[in-house]
Structure formats: structure tokens, C-alpha cells
Amino acid sequence: MGWMRDETGLEKNDANYVPLTPLSFLTRAATIWPDHPAVVYGTHRKTYAEYIQRVTRLASGLSKLGVQPGDVVATILPNIPAQAEAHFGVPACGAVLNAINTRLDVDTIAYILDHGEAKVVLCDPQFLPVLAEAIEQMATAPPQIIEVADDHAGVHAHGHYIEYEALLASGDDTFQWIMPRDEWESLSLNYTSGTTGRPKGVVYHHRGAYLNAMGQVISWRMVLHPVYLTIVPLFHCNGWCHTWMMPALGGTVVCCRDITAPAIFDAIADEGVTHFGGAPIVLNMLVNAPDAQRPVDHLVEVFTAGAPPAPATLAKIEPMGFNVTQVYGLTEVYGPATECTWDARWDDLQGADRAAIKARQGVAMPFIEEVRVTDENLNDIAKDSEAKGEIMFRGNGVMKGYLKNPTATAEAFAGGYFHSGDIAVMHSDNYVQIADRAKDIIISGGENISSVEVEACLMNHEAVLLCAVVAKPDDKWGEVPCAFIELKDNHIATEAEMIVFTKDRLAGFKTPKKVIFQELPKTSTGKIQKFELREYAKEL
Fold this sequence. Notes:
With 540 residues, this protein is α/β, with parallel strands linked by helices. Helix 1 (23-32) packs across helix 2, helix 4 (106-116) packs across helix 5 and helix 11 (280-287) crosses helix 12. It is globular and about 70 Å long. The chain starts with 22 loop residues before the first helix and ends with a helix.
């Protein structure tokens, strides 16, 4: 082996080392499958040859507007073709994509545009009034606005700004893409849904997005030409990197602007959708849809994340034709980073036993080197399904850091791991299962109560559509569980009934001491906004 110590002449060169970037997936797909459907949305049906031409024209058009490599280009768009095109076209001109949550308030959008210093923003007409107000609040130079009409959805251009199709028409389809010279170059900027304080700007690099996309192909057991439905907003961890992933397989992206049960069932029936990702709230919506929905005649693979899905929901949705795999991650790890990989030893499990396994967050995806659950001293906790610690990540699918926030970046990476802030147990088979967000643990009389456990119990009640459990201040116990419940249509229930229901299934100290029936506040990705409920519970 000693001869390997002399590596003279074995250096990197142009032939053997090319920076990894998801942009290469699209150039390859356009070469191999030029006539295969790439993006579908109503009457908008583009092949890979047409897709790459539109992306190239977008990159060229942005360059002509003065966008330089390293500049930020923002989008405020639903899941429409222009948002998918921006995922390739913005980096193809060397710029950094900042896909902004369409449901944010004026003040937060103004902060993001200032902080990220966006030069251009592509905006759906529906969100132009909010954007206009945000620009008035900005402290720095405002971005140039490009209006992206959605005539298919009846959202027409106002005519006050350059329209997206006109921008593409101004572009040159022979424009040479500006590929990264270094795979560590920034690809996208995603702002966390800051529930306390200002959102932080999470920066992704080309290498991480490439490896995440490739790794999920393995995790999702994908073969050529999947048909992917955009349920996850493309502003949420760049749609979990799925739009970058599809060209690697010659897949078809089916855009979905409004996430409703009929839209999902229709896309499965009409477009042959084979895969989608979504929060448990989406699964719940499908389970509770009217019986008249169109049947699912082929297996649809689903990645679910955002909160642990209730075993009751999992048990109901699988017989409908959906195979659900729970994944888990955060904005800081490009979306999904662990998966509940199914093992043949569980094949015979049914009902609640099967669902209990599927409710785990699982093991590291292929692009994550390590997932640990540790105590405050970074020591691994016992793998006994009971000891609790914080989930830690290390690998190529971890962000570069927080933009202009070296202190927060250093804290997040202390000890050489990314600190998730999520509290979990580790099972003996190395599968991780979240007990709670650190801030969602309820400490009552010195006992730790997992809000997730109480919620899973309540979701088994036939009248419950959605629920959230938070801490309510209590003079005697310090905190007690308080449940907020959204009931199914045409169902009724009482506070006393719910308390008895949980008391029959959980330890007495874990049962909610207060139950409130109301519609639950949710983020655009379907996550229940517990911080709002905590504030409300404080006032009770």
C-alpha cells in the first residue's frame, strides 16, 4: 500500500472533477428525453426540450435586467410552472434563489427583502398588494418586480409591471448557463418560519442540493419517469429539493396551486401521479374527503413530514391506495433528512401496531452521515425508547449557515453537529422518534409530558379532525396540558367527553385539564401554529 503515498500527477482536473449542481440534472434530461413531459399544469404542458428553453430564457432575461452572479432573486409564487422554472433559471444566471412564503405578513416580507437584498422579485398577482406594501417599508433599494400571471387559475396580470412571459421573450435561448466554479457556492436562501423573533436566512449550496436530490431517489425507491405532484410548497425548503430531483429521473412535475382533496384525487386519476409529499394535515384531508372522490387505482407513494402523523390517520389512508413513509427534517437540512425505512420484519403488522412503526422519524437518509440523539454534553442517550435527548445532524445535507448571523450559525453547529432543537427517543434498532420540540414539552409538577403523545391519543377519537396540545400556566402544577380541537363536519363532542377519553388511555397527569373547540391556526405548509395557541392558553 506504500506506493499510494506518492500522488504526484493525481490532482483534480477538468476531466475528473466537476462541481456538483442540480442544474446538471436538467441539461442531462433535455438531452435524453427531449419529448418527455417535464412540467404539467392545466393546459401548460411542456416537454424537457421546452422546459430547458424556458429556463434558459429566464436566466438570460434576468441577466439582461442586471442580475449578477451572487445576487438574490426572490419569488412570491404558489406552486405554478414559473416557480419550478425559477429553481433552475435563477441559479443558471449565477444568482441565488429566495423563494418566499406566500402567506407571510407585510412586515416579514419587507424584512426578508431587506436582509437578502433581492434585486428582482417574481410575484403572482394575488400577492402584489402585500408586496407593494412591503416595498414601501423597506430600508434598502427595492427589487424590480416581475408579474407572473396565472391565467389558468383566473389570476390575471395587473399590467403595472413587466410580465413573466415578456421577460422570457426578452431572453436568449442560446444563453450560456453560469455553472458554479465551486460546489460550495450558494444556490438558494430560505427563511425559517420564525415563530419567535425574526426569521433566519438559511443558505444552501449546490453540492447539498445535488446530493439531497440524489439521496431521495434512493429513499423513495424511485425508477424512471415518476409523476410528482407539488403539494409541498416550493418555498418550503425548495419543495424538499423535489423539483431539482425530477429531471434526474426524467420525471414529470404536476403543479398544484390550491391544495384540496378534489385537486389531489383528480391529479392522481388524470395525470397518473405516483408520488407526492405533504404534511399530515394533507393525509387527514384525504381521509376525511367525501366518499364521492375518484378512486385511486394505483399505488401512490407519499412522503409525510412537518409533524408526526397520528397513527389513526396512517391506519385509514393506506387502504385507500397510499403508501406513507414518514420523513423528518428542517429548513436547515434541505427538508427531509431522516426516513422511516420499512423493514420486512414488520410486514405482518396490522392496524395500530403497523401505524406505530410508521410514526417513527427513522434513520439517516443517504446524504446525511450521522443522526444522533444526545444529552446536553453531546453524549449519546440510551437506546431504550425512553431516554430523551436532542436530535443532531452531520453530513452534506446540512446548510452552509445563517446569512449575516455568525453567532446563530456558531450556536447551531456547536460541537461539530447541527442542533435540531427537536427532542426524541432512540429505539434499540437505531430508529429515532420525536417526543417533542424542545419548546413544546409540557412540564407539569416536575413531570415531562409530550404534547405529541397526547395529540396522538386525541386523534383516535372519531369526532376529532385536528388537535394541538400546549402548556397552560397553572398555579399548582406550573403547567398543565391544554387541548385545542378542530372537529369534523357534522360531529359534536364535549370537553368532559374528551378528558374522559384521554384519561382511559393515558396517565392521569398527561390528560388535558382544559379543552377548547375551534379552528386551529396553521402555516402555509399545514403546520399548526402552536405559539399562537400557547399565547391564548396563557390568557385563559
